[in-house]
Structure formats: structure tokens, C-alpha cells
Write a structure and sequence with these properties.
The complex is a heterodimer of chains A (199) and B (201). With 199 residues, chain A is α+β, with helices and mostly antiparallel strands. Chain A is 35% helix and 35% strand. Chain B has 201 residues and is an alpha+beta fold. In chain B, 35% of the residues lie in helices and 33% in strands. The chains are: A alpha+beta (199), B alpha+beta (201). At the A-B interface, helix 1, strand 1, strand 2, strand 5 and strand 6 of A face helix 1, strand 1, strand 2, strand 6 and helix 3 of B.
Chain lengths: 199, 201
């Protein structure tokens, strides 16, 4: 009987010590602030370009995400629009790329076309649906930015597989031929360098 | 009773272990529990990219301005009983300027033997780009709706454009356009090249 009482009091004492330790630690946890990496601001720089954009694609994509869990789901849906411009980088033109046969004939070798610009404006992104279960937190802006970044990455990858570069090359050829003819050249040949150029 | 006390003891021990770990994770000495348990990154669903429009353009990009800014909304007061809001984010992007050559007409190019005169339209800002991957949320307090955050993001784009103008992007753009075209026309065999660009305000 006495043993039983003694055992119980040891148990209770141990529990009290643990509870006290937990309380102290709880206070420490609340007092320690979460580490935040201070934002760094990069240098603002101007840089020269020499690019000729010849085609602009406007594309849309539905960005959807379902976060399914046993304690509740979260679902979100965006409609995002982006513009992509492609053309040629004239910085890559060298003296050898322009061949004058006489004063009225010219052959211009242009670098391979590439995507020059990708723009997904905030004003062209719409949140269509957003729902979180009772036990789930709402999507934070950080999470939304992360999901939209994935959408951006996907659009970039898929646009690259479209015919945008072929159209950019065709338009660059038409444009240059027309300008050079306006300048008085009677025979104008615009060709493209093989694969290569800047990625 | 004995079993209950034993369970309570285990629960307290686990709580202590968690509370010993948590402050160290908070100050960055240990990985956070969420990062340990969320091994799989949230992936968006596979959906197609639809082409809405294809436009033939003739734009010459002659200058880019890279910018990075910290945007702080400050404390946004809300009605009583609602938590105040604040959003601080870092925005990274670029401003592109140059010429819209589709504005060139027959009269814009005048050739006389080995001389050429080209009248360009004024240099202007062609694009301000801050894509979703260019936004990084630093602090988010209170409930900020998507529409609200969109307005702040659009404001960041206006700041980028203003900064670029203040840095003289249009002046540099005009100068770079002039140099680039001069080089191009000289390669075409012209000895006198005159590029006329109207002043931009």
C-alpha cells in the first residue's frame, strides 16, 4: 500500500517537473523570433541591346492546384495570360554576315532567331476559384506566387515548342528584305545561320 | 489511472522534444519541421497553353534596365476586430525600351548614292517585365486578397518604369539605336549615315 502511494507521488512529481519544463520551453519558443533573411536589393543597371523582335504570341493557361489531405482539401484555379516576343539578336551580326555583290545586290546572314522576351503581367492573371477546408489554412500570397511561377515555367517550355521561332525568322526575312529594297537594293537575300547563337 | 499518467508523461516528453527543436529551427540552425515533412513539392496540374493571338511586329530593343526593389505596403489598418495587414515583397525584373519600327514609312528612309538618312520614331518604353518568378514574399501579415496583392505588384511595375526613366533609359536607348543602325548601314556600304531621332520627353 505504502509502495503504491510512494510510486504515485514519484509519478506525480515527475509529471510536475515535465510540465514545468514544458512551460519554460513554451515561453522560450514564443520568445524566439523566426529568422528572416533580410532582403537585399541588387544594383540597378542599364544595358545596351540590339535585338529585333518580329513576332508576338499572346497565350493563356489555366493554372490549377489541388492540395488533398485527410483533414481537408484546398483548391485554387487561376487564368494567366502571357506575351512572348521572338526575333533576332543583331549584336551577333559581324562584318562577314553582310555581303555586297555590287551596289544593288546584298546577302545578309542573320543569327538564328530566339525568344527575346516573356511577360506575364499581374493585371492579366485572374484568380477564378479558391477554396480551403475548415481545418486548412488559406493559400498565402507566397504559395500563390509559387504556383504561378510554375505556370510561368510551363508556358515558357511549351511556347518554346511552338512555331514561334519559325515565324520570327520568316518575319525577320520579310522585314529586312522590304527595308533593304526601300533603300534601293534590287536583289536582297536574307539567310539564317544554322543552329546556334545564344541560347 | 496509471496508464493515463504514463501517456501524459510521453505527451509531455514529445512536447519538450518539439519545443527544444523548434527554436533552433526558427533561428535557422536546424531544418524546419514543415520542410522535413513536405518532401514533395506542390505541383500544379498539367494544362495546355492556348495561343490567343499571333501578331507580326517590328520592334527594335536597344536598352534594358534591370531593377530590384523591396515593396512595403506599410501597416494597412482594418476595421475593429480584424487583424491589420502588411505585405513586404521583393520584386525583380526589367524594363525594355527601343523603337517601334512599324511606324517607319516610305518617307522615313532617303537614299542618295552612298548617303542615307533614316528618320526613326522616338524611343519609348516597350515592356515592363516582372513575372511571377520575380516576386518573392518576405513578410505577409493579415489576410491579403489576390486582387490586393495584384495591385501592389502592378504598383511595383510602375516603380520600375519610373526608375528606368529617371536613369535615362530613353536617352540611352536613342543613342544605342543610332549607333547600332549607323554600324549596320556602314556594313551595307553607305559612307554617310544620318539617323534622325526625335527628342523624347
Amino acid at each position: 500500500m505504502e509502495m503504491e502511494v510512494k510510486k504515485k507521488s514519484t509519478f506525480a512529481r515527475r509529471l510536475a517537473v515535465l510540465a514545468a519544463a514544458a512551460a519554460v520551453l513554451l515561453a522560450v519558443n514564443l520568445a524566439v523570433p523566426r529568422k528572416k533573411v533580410p532582403p537585399s536589393v541588387g544594383v540597378r543597371t542599364l544595358k545596351d541591346l540590339a535585338e529585333l523582335a518580329t513576332v508576338e504570341y499572346s497565350v493563356t493557361k489555366i493554372v490549377s492546384y489541388k492540395d488533398v489531405a485527410w483533414y481537408g482539401d484546398r483548391k485554387i484555379l487561376f487564368e494567366a495570360a502571357a506575351t512572348v516576343k521572338a526575333g533576332v539578336d543583331l549584336n551577333e551580326l559581324t562584318d562577314q554576315d553582310i555581303k555586297l555583290e555590287n551596289d544593288s545586290a546584298v546577302t545578309v546572314t542573320l543569327p538564328a532567331p530566339k525568344i527575346l522576351l516573356f511577360n506575364m503581367k499581374p493585371e492579366n492573371i485572374r484568380e477564378i476559384f479558391n477554396e480551403s477546408g475548415i481545418l486548412r489554412s488559406d493559400f498565402s500570397n507566397q504559395e500563390k506566387d509559387g504556383l504561378l511561377s510554375q505556370g510561368e515555367k510551363d508556358i515558357r517550355a511549351k511556347v518554346g515548342r511552338m512555331d514561334i521561332l519559325q515565324r520570327a525568322a520568316r518575319n525577320a526575312r520579310i522585314l529586312l528584305e522590304s527595308w533593304l529594297k526601300k533603300m534601293g537594293f534590287q536583289a536582297v537575300h536574307v539567310v539564317f545561320r544554322g543552329k546556334g547563337g545564344r541560347p | 489511472m496509471k496508464r493515463l499518467l504514463a501517456i501524459l508523461q510521453i505527451v509531455l516528453l514529445l512536447a519538450i522534444v518539439f519545443m527544444l527543436y523548434n527554436p533552433l529551427a526558427k533561428i535557422g540552425l536546424l531544418p524546419s519541421l514543415s520542410s522535413i515533412f513536405h518532401i514533395q513539392q506542390s505541383r500544379i496540374d498539367e494544362t495546355p497553353v492556348i495561343i490567343q493571338q499571333v501578331k507580326n511586329i517590328a520592334q527594335m530593343f536597344t536598352q534594358t534596365f534591370y531593377d530590384e526593389t523591396v515593396y512595403d505596403t506599410g501597416i494597412i489598418r482594418t476595421p475593429v476586430l480584424s487583424a491589420n495587414k502588411r505585405l513586404i515583397f521583393i520584386a525583380k525584373g526589367e524594363v525594355i525600351s527601343g523603337f517601334d519600327l512599324s511606324e517607319l514609312s516610305e518617307k522615313s528612309i532617303i537614299r542618295r548614292d552612298k548617303s542615307i538618312v533614316v528618320k526613326l520614331p522616338p524611343a519609348r518604353i516597350l515592356d515592363v517585365i516582372i513575372n511571377p518568378s520575380g516576386f518573392e514574399t518576405f513578410i505577409e501579415e493579415g489576410e491579403i486578397s489576390f486582387e490586393e496583392s495584384k495591385k501592389f505588384h502592378e504598383d511595383a511595375r510602375r516603380i520600375f518604369e519610373r526608375n528606368a526613366r529617371e536613369k535615362g533609359i530613353l536617352k540611352n536607348s536613342a543613342e544605342q539605336g543610332r549607333q547600332m543602325l549607323e554600324k549596320f548601314f556602314r556594313l551595307l556600304g553607305f559612307e554617310t549615315v544620318d539617323i534622325i531621332i526625335p527628342e523624347t520627353l
